[in-house]
Recover the amino acids of this structure.
């Protein structure tokens, strides 16, 4: 896919990113659900996520390895990325003009509450499996 633009609800934070493909993944972890009032619908953008400088660009250090990008003015969640910037999952809802997306994967499936589930057949990974896959990809 080619690089595309995106922005928060109020437009104070704008960014560019290049999706790795058309696969949408959902994170059900407790941190995502608390921050976003629901699961996180994201598309992998590798190291291509670049936010424009803005006084409203919020970067929340959520763990030792990851940070959450958001707009300080309107509260829109924009992305999760590793602190070294080499891997990003960008909110599919903040990106402009994406078509033909498919829901492919759900992660932290053990944290999904019982009150919702998705009908699409997806690859489902536990948090532990996600960490293992990530460690493998980092050691390559
Ligand atoms: Zn905003
Ligand atoms: Zn999450």
């Amino acid at each position: 896919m080619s690089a595309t633009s995106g922005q928060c609800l109020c437009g104070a934070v704008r960014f560019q990113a290049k999706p790795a493909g058309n696969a949408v993944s959902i994170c059900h972890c407790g941190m995502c659900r608390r921050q976003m009032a629901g699961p996180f619908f994201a598309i992998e953008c590798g190291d291509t996520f670049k936010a424009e400088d803005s006084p409203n660009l919020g970067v929340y250090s959520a763990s030792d390895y990851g940070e959450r990008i958001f707009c300080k003015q309107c509260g829109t969640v924009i992305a999760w990325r590793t602190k070294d910037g080499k891997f990003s999952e960008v909110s599919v809802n903040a990106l402009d003009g994406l078509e033909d997306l498919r829901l492919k994967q759900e992660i932290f499936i053990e944290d999904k509450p019982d009150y919702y589930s998705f009908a699409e057949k997806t690859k489902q990974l536990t948090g532990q499996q996600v960490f293992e896959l990530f460690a493998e990809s980092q050691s390559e």
